[in-house]
Each structure stands twice: as structure tokens, then as C-alpha cells.
Amino acid sequence: MMELPDIDWQLAIDSFWPLLRGGLTGTIPLTLVSFTLGLVLALVLALMRISGNRLFSGIARAYISVIRGTPLLVQLFVIFYGLPSVGLTIDPWPSAAIAFSMNVGGYAAEVIRAAILSVPKGQWEAGYTIGMSRNQALRRLILPQAARVSVPPLSNTFISLVKDTSLASLILVTELFRVAQEIAAFSQEFMLIYVEAAMIYWVFCLVLSTVQDRLERRLDRYVAH
Amino acid sequence: MIEFDQVTKSYTQPGARRAGSVHALHEVSLSVGESEIFGVVGESGSGKSTLLRMVNALELPSSGAVTVNGVNLAALRPRDRRAQRRRIGMVFQQFNLLANKTVLANVALPLNLHQRLGGLAERGLGPRRRPGAEAASADRAREMLDFVNMGAQASKHPAQLSGGEKQRVAIARALVNEPDILLCDEPTSSLDSQHTDEVMATLLRVRAEMGTSILLVSHELDVIRGACDRAAILESGRLTGIAEIARLQARESFDSYSERARKYLEGDQE
Ligand SMILES: Nc1ncnc2c1ncn2[C@@H]1O[C@H](COP(=O)(O)OP(=O)(O)O)[C@@H](O)[C@H]1O
Ligand SMILES: [Mg+2]
What we know:
The complex is a heterodimer of chains A (225) and B (270).
Chain A: H1 9-50, H2 54-69, H3 72-82, H4 92-118, H5 121-129, H6 134-164, H7 176-187, H8 190-220
Helix pairs in contact in A: 1-2, 1-4, 1-7, 1-8, 2-4, 3-4, 4-6, 5-6, 6-8, 7-8
Chain B: E1 2-12, E2 21-32, E3 37-42, H1 48-55, E4 63-68, H2 78-85, E5 88-91, H3 103-116, H4 119-122, H5 133-147, H6 163-175, E6 181-185, H7 193-210, E7 213-217, H8 221-227, E8 230-235, E9 238-244, H9 257-265
Parallel strand pairs in B: 3-7, 3-8, 5-6, 6-7
Antiparallel strand pairs in B: 1-2, 1-4, 8-9
Helix pairs in contact in B: 3-5, 3-6, 5-6, 6-7
The structure holds adenosine-5'-diphosphate and magnesium ion (MG).
Residues 11, 22, 24, 42, 44-50 of chain B line the site of adenosine-5'-diphosphate.
């Protein structure tokens, strides 16, 4: 039979700040750094894919396939536990950032590629006819429009990443979930602490969803539906 | 001004395993004179767009040569080809304005691009823009918007405009660099008749006031007949003839709507 929980409110309150701090100083910076680097990588991969160069597009395609076809946790372990055996030891935090960036890169590359392809061909031609090169048309006409199309799917990637960073606790990175594990082990209040941690993740994601909504509405202002 | 000499264009189908190819144009020769409005008519798929897009080298001929003011764009290096393209304006059936920029910014874009490309700035040296260039190009863009009667809508975004208004903005953008040739690919084919008339009246004014040569592709015979001096007739990529269009009452079909309504309602049909 399930017992009615007898909530230790004092522990809930005492653990709130350490958990939140784990989120603010661990989860959020790890997410931001990984997402930013991941986006840069994704853009490069997407451009390689559409470059028309068989070698570049083949490399990008293979990379994306490997990243999307293997578990994130395995990727993380390969970098943190695997690389030292070939003589490359990386600290936990950078290991996590590298693994998450590489993962975001693989997923977001396909989003960006699809967004670039969704911009009508006529927009390229409008650029060419006023004397733009392919690069100029890409940078000044196509990417700004592709960026607008990519906001909803990339926001979803970002929100998933916030949650996925909890995996970094497994390679000893101090972030929200790692802090939760430590407090839970110490207090033996597993239910309370993990639910509390879950609530904090949830609030982070709610805030991000609101930001996403606002951003989308702003960007859609001038687009005819 | 524009010369087609035995121009053939075949597209290789990128998907096809065997080298199957589509003959879009077959040995077309024609020439378009200064300040002429030259039409290209034909059924869908007859090669009209292909012909037009060879003038500014969006497509390159498979054989034969297209020269514009004596220059063969296909033979130029990419940078020089881009410079030549700036001397040729183009408008499209789908307008192709930038949704996230204002009307004014759309029209000023070719000017700003032009300035950034100048001299040192192109190599990333020196200031990216000459001082005052921004204001000067905005003035010039406003002038063009006034010309197409869109001056009052300069700060709107394309999504807030009707199709006819969008096309007039596109014409202003195409003309802002003062090209001597304007290419129009089905410019009125997604417009209703009133907006078609507005756009065609604008094109006639472009020729009259700027002396621009206009190459006008359309499957709408009324549009061609109402505006063009001559028109090439294409069938399956072959030029089957060039019609000399009688000038009679042609221009009247692009009177303003209220002018036509008055004439029609009052029974004044000449
Ligand atoms: N980029 C392309 N690749 C392959 N075939 C093309 C391409 N563009 C046009 N075609 C083919 O060339 C022919 C002529 O097309 P087009 O010039 O667009 O005709 P129109 O403008 O008169 O409708 C058509 O059969 C069309 O399918
Ligand atoms: Mg066409």
C-alpha cells in the first residue's frame, strides 16, 4: 500500500536554493554554451549539405547519421570515459559541453537545412538579379528568412537540451540533477527531492516556452498567412 | 540592344539516371531594340521563362550566344557578370519581395548592396559604407516609389500590400539602379484585371519616361497586345514568328479603372 507522504517542508525549503543554484550555475550555462556551439556546428553542416560538393555533403550526411543514430548518453560516455584511453582526457564540464554541442549540431543541422530549402527559389533569384553572389544572397536574403522558419523547431531542441543536460550528472558535472542526487543520498528523501528537482526543470521549461511564444509572434508579424 | 543568335537550351534532368535532357529552346534568333517593349508569348512550357532568364544569365545557353549591348554575359567571369546584371532589372510573377523588410528597404536594397561592393569595402578594408550613402539611397528609393505611386506606403511591409501594389514595389526595386533593360516574367499572371491594368500602365510609363527596353513574358495575349510593339511567339522551344502589333487603340486598355468605367458606362467605346 502507498503511504501518504509526510512532507518534510523544512528540507524542501532548505534544499530549494542549492537545487536552484545548481540549475542557474550548472544547467543553464551548460545549455547555453552547448546550444550556441551546436548551432554554429549545425549551420556549417547544413551549408555543407547544400553545397553541391559531394565530399562536403557526404561528410555532413555521415556525421548527422551517426549523431542521430546513437544515444546521447553513449556519446557523452565516449567523450568522457572513452577518449582518455586514447590519451585525450577532458574535464567533466567541457566533456559535457562538447558532447551536447555535437549532438545539437547533428539535429539542428537538419532543421536548418530544411529551413534553407523552404525559402522560395525566387528569393535567391531576386538576389542574383540585383547582382548578389551566392554567398551574399545566402547571408542577406536566405538565412534571415530561414532563421525565422527555424525558430519553432530550434526552440524545441533548446528545451529538450535543458532536460538532457541532466545526463551530465553521470559524468560528475555539478548541475541541477547532480545536486539533487547528492541531497537525496544524504537525506534519503528521494521522492521529495527528485520531485522538487523536476518542478524546477518544469519552471525553466515553462519560462522558455513563453519566451518561444513571444519570439514566434514577433517574427510572424510581417508574414502573410 | 539584346541579341539572340541561334540560341539552344537543353536542361539535363538532375534526377535522371540516363542523360535525358529537356529541350527548352531550339535555335532561337531575335533582337530587341532600344526603348522597345518586346513580348514573348507561348503556352506553358514553351520556353518563355528560359528565353527571358538567358538575358541576365540566370540560365546559360547550351549553344549559340546572347549578347546585351554587345556583351556576352555567359562568357564573363562571375564578378563581371554580377556587375552586368545590375544593369538589367527583373520582376517575377511571385514578386519575390523580402517579407521582413519594409517597402522602402526592399527598394533600397540594390543600392546599399552596390555601395558596399565599392572598391576597398569589397575587400573588407575601409569603411563599409560611404558617409551619407544610407540617406542618399533612401532618397533614391523614395523617388522610385513615387514613380510607381507607392510613395505613401513606404513604411509598410509587403504582407500588408495587395498583389498589384507588391508588383509595383518590385518594379521600383528593379528600376532603382537605372537599368536600360527590364525583364518581366509573367508580371501580371497572379493579379486580377484591375491590378493587371495598374501594373501595365506603370510599365508603359517606365518606357515612356525612362526609355527602358522591356522584355515582357506572358501567356495573356491581351496584356501583350496592349503593351508591346512586337512579340515573339514560341511553341515547344521554337520561335514560330514575330508579330508586329498594331498600335491602334492599344494603350487604352490600360486606362485607369475609373477612366474605363466612365467610358464604358457612358458608352464611349472608341
Ligand atoms: N531548371 C530546369 N530544369 C529542367 N527543366 C526545366 C528547367 N526549367 C525549365 N525546364 C523545362 O523547360 C521547358 C520550358 O520551360 P519554361 O521556360 O519555364 O517555359 P514557360 O515559361 O514558357 O512556361 C519546360 O519543359 C520545363 O519543364
Ligand atoms: Mg514561365
